[in-house]
Amino acid sequence: MPRLATASVIALIALGLSGCSTAGLFGDSPLSAASDVETTAPAPTAEPLVFNSVFTDMGSVHQNTMVANELQLQLDMWTEQKTHEWFTDAQKSFSFVIDVTDMTVPVEAPFASKRQVFMSSLSVTATTTTTSGVVETPLVLSVNPVDATLDPEALSSPYGLLITSPKGGLQMVNNVIGPLVDDTYGLILDFSMIVSSEATPGTGSYVTQTIHQTVPVAIFPRV
Prior knowledge:
Number of strands: 10
Distance between the termini: 38 Å
Structural class: mainly beta
Largest sheet: 6 strands, antiparallel
Order of helices and strands: EEEEEHEEEEE
Shape: elongated
CATH architecture: Sandwich
Number of helices: 1
Keywords: Signal
CATH class: Mainly Beta
Protein name: Lipoprotein
Radius of gyration: 22 Å
């Protein structure tokens, strides 16, 4: 976790920025035995809409993705609200931290031995899912990480903002998604970033690529 992210989870992920079966755990139910009692099937009831949210109940997620060999990008995202309080008619605020860990060296290794990774562009787009099929994009955020960082001592290069942990990272707070149409039951947050990473520490030779991290979030009607 980068030094600028004290509130993070983060995390945040996820997942993270990612379940176990209980079948047979308690043995056969007594109702599975043969019985002469006549039963009546209950009337069918409407199933609640289900959205594959990766938020925990307290509103956080931690997601990881490899951007190169043993070079792991972490997305930690969190909200001050609980997951089930992301109502259609509410202001929904979230914060996040993005950084990278070079897993080829120990955490306590000198920073010079770690591969440097920079981020030159970040966009976050929210796309909704509704029962009617109407699609909205209630959030389109596009920033230059060097300008958007909250770290007054952030390190950067022509490749963008340094995001190698522990000296680098990008944190953005209080990003707001406003009210949504009443039949919205989920949205997907797509984090798209352009990152440049060293193949070998200290070489100054970088590989640039676009990385996507998606975060599904359930939306609930206020009852």
